[in-house]
Amino acid sequence: MKRIIIFPEASWRHYSFKWMIPLLHEYGQIYFITSKQDDELPEAVIPLSYSELHTMELTDTIAVVSHPYWVPSLYEHQPDFVIALLPNQPEDEASGLWRKYREQLIAAAALVGTPSETQYLELQFRRDNVIFLNGEDRSAYDFIAYGSDILFLKDYEAWMKQAFGHMLRHESLQSVARQQWLARKTCYESLVRNTEGHETISFLISVYSYLLGDGDAKEHLLLAFEQAVLSGAGDCLHTHYRFLSAIEALYGDLDRAADLYGITATTPEAKRQYASVVSFLGQGKRDLAKAKLLELNDDYRLAAELLASNSSTEARTLLIQNHLQAGRLESAFQLLVPEELTTDSDLRDYYLLEGTVYLSRNNRHLAIRSFLKAAAYDYDALAHILELKALDEARIHLIGEDLR
Fold first, then answer.
1. How many angstroms from the chain centroid is the CA of residue 262?
2. CA dihedral of residues 287, 292, 298, 304 (deg, nearest 10)
3. Residue 41 is part of a domain; what is its CATH number?
4. What is the number of other CB atoms lying within 10 angstroms of the CB of residue 83?
5. Which among 48, 130, 54 is positioned nearest to 86, based on CA atoms?
6. Which of 131, 161, 177 corresponds to the end of one domain?
7. To bridge 306 with a disulfide, which of 65, 170, 291, 391 should be the other Cys (CB 3.0-4.6 Å)?
């Protein structure tokens, strides 16, 4: 049996994922970090102060985390597994610091769940092992025993339970992901049958078809584009039609995919990226061209898989950029070789990344040293040291204890 420690985003009364407790209960004793003694915790959950956490042996431990500012604690305590449950961003947390640590929490997690479909799809294009914690189907999909009760589970609750079990057994979650992709596609197809149709619905069907590898992805994408044009949408060439280049790159003709992207390349930056794709094709570097086209359509996950399988220096450079854009800072840092960096801007960026990685590992001394090195190339890098105070204040506000 494992020890399950919940690192929450709020007190128990306002905790967003209470419904997860019965799903987790069979796998071990559950602890909930809180500074309040009067929290109305259920009998199955033991309150745990942050100071008490430091006295515990954290072998065989699963961390269930729903706030980005717990990331330094995760590196400090090194749980066996991290499950990131992402509530919607609080209105008072729009800072770059919150977003930076959100990216690091996602990167550290073995499994990620979110009730936002927008966030879910964004993550599907960046990493594996993501579950959508919501849905329109409220009927019973499965059931579990919880104490003396029988609890009926909605489909996404059952899929989260399946994903949790696969994770603990170090098994692929691809079968669970495909079940959910198919359910989402079926949901939107039902909406089309019962309504006049809308470009967003058609586009989402295309996206789920793309993830599933279904042959109708292109058909639904073109329908979405047509509907967007007829509705007067202003930027549908970029927001809709461009995705056709990803579909062609993955399942069709790579040269045609490049041409399709070129049609949408109306800005100087897009034209520069298009020229890069054409150059790769002209040099016979088709894997790099394919990865670039996928990345230009925000599919960082599949692009990274392609680049990781290519041993060239050029592929490594592109993979580093992919990791950075997708928020996988630790992975990018591991691939960088400081001796290969020659320009002041490259060295500044390296030391800033190094400092950010050290800070996420809760190693303040090394983080400050790296930020000072970066400041030798750009004085503005000192602002990153000032973030330490902001992080301390945010974490104290989160749990009500001094976490330093």
1. 29
2. 50
3. 3.40.50.2000
4. 27
5. 130
6. 177
7. 291
Predicted pLDDT of residue 98 = 87
The token pair at 379 is 């004085």
Q: What is the pLDDT of residue 55?
A: 84
Find tokens 């586009």 and name the residue: 203
Among candidate residues 139, 162, 177, the one where a domain is terminated: 177
Tokens 């597994």 map to which residue? 81
pTM: 0.93
Q: Per-block average pLDDT, block size 10, for the chain (404 residues)?
A: 91 92 93 79 90 84 95 89 87 73 93 96 96 88 87 94 94 96 95 85 97 96 94 88 96 95 96 97 97 97 97 96 94 94 94 93 92 94 88 83 50
Q: Is 155 inside a domain boundary?
A: yes
* Phi–psi pair at 94, nearest 5 degrees: -105, 15
Number of DSSP helices (H) and strands (E) in the chain, helices first = 20, 9
Angle 202-247-270 from CA coordinates, rounded to 5°: 100
Which residues are CB-contacts of 365 (< 8 A; sequence separation ≥ 6)?
A: none
Would you state the structure tokens that stand for residue 66, as one six-digit string?
Answer: 């729903």
- Residue 38: predicted pLDDT: 56
Total domains, the chain: 2
- Kindly state whether residue 263 falls inside one of the protein's structural domains: no
